[in-house]
Design goal:
By secondary structure, the protein is α+β, with helices and mostly antiparallel strands.
Length: 125
């Protein structure tokens, strides 16, 4: 195990590491955000195509962390249709429509690619 100590703190080191990447990560996340939208659109069960074409993403920076958030804007009667397709829902006549896990398989390759890109960036010299 390697231990590193500092008598003056790590503020300058943390600032250097954060600034070394700068906004480069935003362009990387933009790429994967867009790929995620394409994957979700292709994987979404379609009847009218409205839910499949309603995917979008945003990049959020908060508390020193950056996240990619995918969203589907197809909402009918206060219900997000992408969510009920994923998890299932009751019908107006007392029946139940089983959900279909389409979101996780669609995004898994995107997550893997993002992790690979981050690992390459961290380990590159």
């Amino acid at each position: 195990m390697i231990t590193i100590t500092s008598k003056k703190g790590w503020n300058k080191t943390e600032k250097l590491l954060k600034n070394s990447l700068g906004d480069k990560w935003f362009s990387v996340l933009e790429k994967y955000g867009s790929q995620g939208v394409q994957a979700l659109s292709a994987a979404t069960p379609t009847e009218s195509g409205k839910t499949a074409s309603s995917w979008d993403y945003k990049i959020v920076k908060k508390g020193g962390k950056v996240s990619v958030i995918w969203n589907n804007s197809n909402i009918e009667n206060g219900v997000n249709i992408a969510v009920i397709l994923q998890y299932g829902h009751g019908t107006g006549t007392g029946g139940y429509v089983q959900g279909r896990d389409y979101i996780n398989p669609a995004l898994r390759p995107i997550f893997d690619a993002m992790a690979d890109a981050a690992w390459k960036e961290v380990t590159s010299t």
